[in-house]
């Protein structure tokens, strides 16, 4: 079982009628969930998703606690992902500077000011104390874009809403563990603590844009994770690829002490037993593969050649190889193009018309190979 747990929040429609509704936050949240479940093979009950009316401030805080912190299925060291696609804003204090806020569904209703930066910081600190620092928070929102002519023109497609009429009198009523206001002055969502890694759509003062196809950041991020060998690239390196896809107008970034780690500290990227290691024979002309006649391999069996054997990490076909010599427990194959000295192969076609000895297991497989 993949040891990854997530809370995903997407909000297009807001209860407060004066807030400009968004178009693609819910779709983005569903796409992130699909990536976790389909690509990374995360069990469905490991992911909690809150959309629109479900994503009230109280419900988000309650789900964060019950699904991540208090969940008895989670263990210390498990990978945790918290994803938000919604409006952001900056709420002014009754006195002093403003604070950044993620706009929950009930933002602006009564005394609800959404999820404040310092409140989320405290929640993440509580989570890290309970489960460790393998925490990734992804924000496809913006909080205080400069009101330049260009930004005003993009207002309809910006994940930000003004909050001129909302005043926060209390950082987080009823949360005795909230850090002192002085300790978190000017924290902002972009000042990541050492307890987690932040992947954000843009820095403070810039805009996070969306279209009907999705948020620019989330769309580029999901393209990147499907095209990148995630098991051996850092979060910072991955964000470089995201930036190149977005181009100008928006600058996503990564922050936190763990940005040099792979995403989720590589927890989901476990060996895929469908791949078998191969290396070159002494003459460097033929690949030597640890599968032979007892496994059903014959002359003419076809393999695809890959750079690694990690599940959930982009693993393209580098070449195809055709078996030319076969022995009981190993075989030689001719690669049709150049490949590295050590690589991994997967069966494409057995090309054997007879049966094979199903009582013998391949050395890298825990289940029987099938034609």
List keywords for this structure.
371 residues; alpha/beta; Rossmann fold; 6-stranded antiparallel beta barrel; elongated; Metacaspase; cysteine-type endopeptidase activity
> Could you say what the CATH topology of the largest domain is called?
Rossmann fold
Highest-level CATH class of the largest domain = Alpha Beta
Rg, rounded, reads: 25 Å
Indicate the percent of residues in helices.
Answer: 10-25%
How can the largest sheet be summarized?
A: 6 strands, mixed
Spatially, the strands of the biggest sheet line up as: 2-1-3-7-9-12
State mean pLDDT (0 to 100 scale): 86
Q: Count of helical segments? A: 6
Class from secondary-structure proportions? alpha/beta
Question: Which ranges are low-confidence, i.e. pLDDT below 50, for 5 or more consecutive residues?
Answer: 170-185, 355-371
Strand content: 15-25%
Give the CATH architecture of the largest domain: 3-Layer(aba) Sandwich
DSSP summary, beta strand count: 18
Oligomer: single chain
- How do the SSEs run, as a string of H and E? EHEHEEEEHEHEEEEHHEEEEEEE
How many structural domains does the protein architecture include? 2
| Overall form | elongated
Cα-to-Cα separation, first versus last residue: 26 Å
């Amino acid at each position: 079982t993949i040891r990854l747990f997530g809370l995903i929040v997407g909000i297009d429609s807001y209860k407060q009628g004066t807030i400009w509704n968004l178009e693609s936050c819910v779709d983005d949240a569903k796409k992130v969930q699909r990536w976790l479940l389909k690509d990374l093979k995360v069990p469905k009950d490991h992911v909690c998703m809150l959309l629109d009316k479900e994503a009230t401030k109280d419900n988000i805080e309650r789900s964060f606690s019950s699904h991540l912190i208090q969940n008895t299925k989670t263990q210390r060291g498990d990978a945790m992902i918290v994803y938000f696609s919604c409006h952001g804003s900056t709420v002014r204090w009754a006195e002093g500077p403003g604070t950044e806020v993620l706009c929950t569904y009930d933002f602006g209703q009564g005394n609800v000011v959404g999820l404040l930066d310092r409140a989320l910081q405290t929640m993440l600190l509580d989570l890290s104390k309970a489960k460790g620092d393998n925490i990734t928070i992804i924000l496809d929102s913006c909080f205080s874009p400069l009101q330049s002519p260009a930004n005003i023109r993009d207002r309809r497609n910006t994940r930000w809403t003004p909050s001129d009429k909302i005043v926060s009198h209390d950082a987080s009523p009823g949360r005795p563990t909230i850090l002192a206001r002085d300790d978190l002055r000017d924290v902002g969502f972009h000042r990541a603590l050492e307890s987690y890694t932040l992947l954000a759509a843009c820095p403070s003062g810039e805009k996070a844009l969306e279209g009907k196809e999705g948020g620019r950041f989330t769309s580029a991020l999901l393209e990147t994770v499907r095209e990148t060998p995630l098991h051996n690239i850092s979060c910072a390196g991955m964000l470089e690829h995201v930036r190149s896809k977005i181009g100008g107008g928006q600058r996503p970034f990564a922050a936190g002490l763990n940005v040099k780690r792979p995403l989720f500290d590589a927890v989901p990227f476990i060996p895929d037993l469908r791949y078998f290691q191969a290396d070159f024979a002494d003459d460097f002309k033929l690949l030597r593969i640890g599968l032979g006649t007892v496994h059903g391999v014959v002359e003419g069996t076809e393999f695809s050649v890959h750079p690694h054997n990690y599940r959930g990490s982009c693993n393209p076909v580098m070449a195809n190889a055709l078996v030319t010599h076969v022995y009981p427990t190993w075989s030689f194959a001719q690669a049709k193009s150049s490949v590295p000295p050590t690589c991994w192969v997967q069966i494409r076609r057995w090309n054997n018309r007879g049966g094979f000895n199903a009582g013998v297991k391949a050395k890298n497989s825990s289940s029987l190979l099938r034609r």
